[in-house]
Amino acid sequence: DIQMTQSPSSLSASIGDRVTITCRASQSISSHLNWYQQKPGTAPKFLIYGASTLQSGVPSRFSGSGSGTDFTLTIDSLKPEDFASYYCQQSYSTPFTFGPGTKVDIK
Amino acid sequence: QVQLQESGPGLVKPSETLSLTCTVSGGSISNYYWSWIRQPPGKGLEWIGYIYDSGNTNYNPSLKSPVTISVDTSKNQFSLKLSSVTAADTAVYYCARVVYYYDNSGSRDDAFDIWGQGTMVTVSS
């Protein structure tokens, strides 16, 4: 199975900050990397696919980059509704696997 | 718009079978892959498996409990059965629609674009 790691596991940030979350795969997954946002008590929300393409309706302050084994999710100008946990997921091969998540909370 | 709703018992005894159903509304179950994903309390997400409307399946071999996913296109539903469950199977179970994209090289990229609200299942005697 492809193992996914994320760093940091949590971070504190202020409204308006730029936040970067890193995701790493245990082997090359090309650009087969998706990102999800999850708020407490709710289902994950699909944000980005193919490492960098925003799903329809996702604000442009979200962006993704990377290929191979190293990927980043960046949120420009953090808004109150962005405080949540973020998960990466590889779709290069089954079993699909998720990173352990990064929790973004208010400083 | 397409919505998914999980249903099933919230409490299952150890060694018994966990059974859940996902009802798809606002759209057809045909021509898509459908998946089950779970999340133990306070932990991350684990993919369980998926099924196509034809009945083709793909399961996560890492799961310790035997898994069966089935589809009923006449009811616009798909189901999950997890046998011989243990406390480790306690989790919120989500059903999700799988969408796929092809990149410039023709490689397929699967993602979970629509999720149900999730249902908590506790395994306990």
Characterization of the model:
The complex is a heterodimer of chains A (107) and B (125). Chain A is mainly beta. Chain A has no helices and eleven strands. Chain A has strands spanning 4-7, 10-13, 19-25, 33-38, 45-49, 53-54, 62-67, 70-75, 85-90, 97-98, 102-106. In chain A, the strands form two sheets. In chain A, strands 2, 4, 5, 6, 9, 10 and 11 form a seven-stranded mixed β-sheet that branches. Chain A has a four-stranded antiparallel β-sheet with strand order 1-3-8-7, with no helix packed on it. Chain A starts with a strand and ends with a strand. In chain B, the strands form two sheets. In chain B, strands 2, 4, 5, 6, 9, 10 and 11 form a seven-stranded mixed β-sheet that branches. In chain B, strands 1-3-8-7 form a four-stranded antiparallel β-sheet, with no helix packed on it. In chain B, a hairpin with a 4-residue loop joins β5 (46-52) and β6. Chain B is globular, with a radius of gyration of 14 Å. Chain B starts with a strand and ends with a strand. The chains are: A mainly beta (107), B mainly beta (125).
